[in-house]
Amino acid sequence: MSLSKELGTEVGAGTAPLLEARDLRKTYAGRVVLDGLSLTVERHDVVCLIGSSGSGKSTLLRCLDLLEPIDDGVVRLDGREVSDPRVDPREVRRRIGMVFQAYNLFPHLDVLTNCTLAQTKVHGTAPAQARATAMALLERFGLADKAGARPDALSGGQQQRVALVRALCTGPELLLLDEITAALDPELVGEVLDIVRAQAEAGTTMVLATHEMGFAREVATRVCFLDGGRILEQGTPEQVFGDPQQPRTREFLARVL
Amino acid sequence: MSGAAVSEPATPAAADQAGWVKSERQREREAVAARQRLIRGLIATAVTVVVGAAVVTGLLLAPGWDRVQEYFLSWPDARDSFGAIGEGFLINIGIFLVAEPCVLVLGTLVAVTRQTVSPWLAPLRLLAVVYTDLLRGVPTILVVALCAIGIPALNLAGVTTSLFWLTTLALVLCYGAYVAEVIRAGILGVHPTQRASAEALALSRSQTMRHVVLPQAFRRVVPPLMNDLVSLQKDTALISAVGVFEALRAAQDYQGYHFNGTSVLVAAGYFLVVAVPLTRLTDWLLRREIRREHGR
C-alpha cells in the first residue's frame, strides 16, 4: 500500500491535481443537489467545505468517493477520469479513506478487526502486519485498550476515533471526512479533531465537510462555501472568514460564528 | 502530533462506592419495594393455583373423562409403546440433523443469489425467485409424496430409492424456501450505511456480503430462523405419510393394534423433549450475543 502511495505521488507530481471535479451535477428525485460544481484538490491541501444543511457538502463527498452515481460532470483522480463506468470504483476507493457522520463501524467485529478488515481483504496485507499497523495507530490515538471491545461498548468520541483509525490503516492518499463531529457531544468533539489536526499537520490531503468554523479556520488551506449546490466562494481561511465577498457568505457566517 | 492521544477518565465503580452510606429514605423505599414484590408474588401464585385447579377439575368432571383417561393415559400402554416409538424417533432425529444444516446452506445460497447483480448469474437469480415462490406455495406433504414416489418412479440410474434420503430432500426443499426468505429479510434489514462504509473501504460486493452484511443479517434473524427449524423438527413426522416407520407412524401402528391412543401422547412427548430445550438454548445464545455486543 505504501508502494501505490509513492507511485501515485511520483506519477502525479507537478502534473495533475490529486483530485479534480468538473461541473458535477447530482439530483435526487428531480431535486438538484449539485449544480455544476467544480473543485480542485492539490496534494497536501486541507479543503474545508462549509455551508448550511442541504447545500450539497455530503453529496459532494459521496460523489467524489463514487458512492453515488453523478448525473453529469467529470471526476478525475491523478488526472485520470474515474467517473467513467469502465473504471472499477474499488481502484479509486483503495486510495481514498472516508469517514462518516454516524461512524458506521461494523458492530459485529471488535475494534481491531474493524481496522484490519480492509487491509487484509482489499490490500492483501499479511494479518500480523495488519494488526501491527492497526495497533500502532490505535495506540497513537489513545485507543489501544479498546482493541478487543465491540464498537457499541464505546462512547461516540471513541467510536469516531476508531472510524478514523480504520480509514487511516490503509494509508490513503486522500481523506474525505463527512461532518465527523456533527453527532458528538461538544465535550467529545475535541478528541476527534485532535486526530484530524495531527493528520493535517502530517501533510495528509483532506476534504472535510464541517460545521466547526473555528477548526476550519485553524487547519484549512482552503475554505469553500457551498450554497445551492455550487461553490459560491472559496479562498484561504483569512479571506473567507475575514473578508467574505458574497452577501450570502456573510449572512451564513453571521449566523454560525 | 503524538499529543493527539486523549486519556480516558478512570472511574471504576469501586471508587465511586467508597464513603457512600445508604440514606434513610433509600432504606425506606427498598423496604416498601420488597413488600410490594412479596404481595405481587403471592397474588400471582394464588391466581395460577386457582386457574390450574379449575382447568383440572373441569377435565376430571367432564362426562367422558373416564374414557379419555382409559384411551390416552394408560400407563401399561405408555410403557409398552415407549421403546418402538423411541426407535422410530431416531429416524426423525436423523432426518432433522441431516436436513437442518442443508436447509441453512440452501436458504443462504438462495437468499444471497437473489442479491447478486452479475449478468452471468441472471439464470440463477430467476431460478431462485421461482424456487422460493413455488416451494412456499405447495403443502409440504405434497412435496414429500412427490419426492418419495415420483423420483423412484423415474427409474433414473444412480439415484437413490431410499425413503430416508428422498423425504429428507423434500423437507430440505420446502424449508430451504422459507429460510431463504427469512435470511433475505435479514440481508435487506442491514442498514445501507453499513454497506456504504464497507464499499468506502474498497471491499468488493461479495466481500461486503460475506464479512459485513451476512454476519449482521444472521444475528437479526435468529428468532424467526429458530421458529422455522423447530417447525422442521416437527414436520419430520410428515414422512409417515409415505410409510417411513418413524415416531408418529410407530405410535399410530401401536394405536391401531392395541386400540389405545396413549402411544400418540408418548410420540408427542418425544418431540417436545427435543423442541423445548432447543428453543431455550437459542434464546440463551442470542441473549449472550447481544450482551457481548453492548457490554464488555
Query: Helix coverage percent of residues of chain B?
Result: over 70%
Which structural class should the secondary elements of chain A be placed in? alpha/beta
Overall 3D shape of chain A: globular
How many individual helices of chain B?
Answer: 11
The major beta sheet of chain A can be summarized as:
6 strands, mixed
CATH topology of chain A: Rossmann fold
SSE order of chain B: HHHHHHHHHHH
Structural class of chain B: mainly alpha
Biggest sheet strand order of chain A reads 6-7-8-3-9-10
The main pleated sheet of chain B reads as: none
Spans of chain A of 5+ residues with little confidence (pLDDT < 50)? 1-13
Sum up the structure in keywords.
heterodimer; A: 257 residues; alpha/beta; Rossmann fold; 4-stranded antiparallel β-sheet; 10 helices; 39% helix; B: 296 residues; mainly alpha; MetI-like fold; 11 helices; disordered N terminus
In short:
The complex is a heterodimer of chains A (257) and B (296). Chain A is 39% helix and 23% strand.
Report on this model:
The complex is a heterodimer of chains A (257) and B (296). Chain A has one domain (2-256): P-loop containing nucleotide triphosphate hydrolases (Rossmann fold, 3-Layer(aba) Sandwich), CATH 3.40.50.300. Chain A has 257 residues and is an alpha/beta fold. Chain A has helices at 2-12, 57-64, 89-93, 111-121, 127-140, 156-168, 186-201, 213-219, 237-242, 247-256, and strands spanning 19-28, 31-41, 46-50, 72-77, 80-81, 96-99, 174-178, 205-209, 222-227, 230-235. In chain A, helix 6 packs parallel to helix 7 (186-201). Residues 1-13 of chain A have low confidence and may be disordered. Chain A is globular. In chain A, the strands form two sheets. In chain A, strands 6-7-8-3-9-10 form a six-stranded mixed β-sheet, sandwiched between helices. Chain A has a four-stranded antiparallel β-sheet with strand order 2-1-4-5, with helices on one face. Chain B is an all-alpha fold. Chain B has a single domain, classed as MetI-like fold. In chain B, helix 10 runs antiparallel to helix 11. The longest helix of chain B is centred in the first third of the chain and has 41 residues, at 75-115.
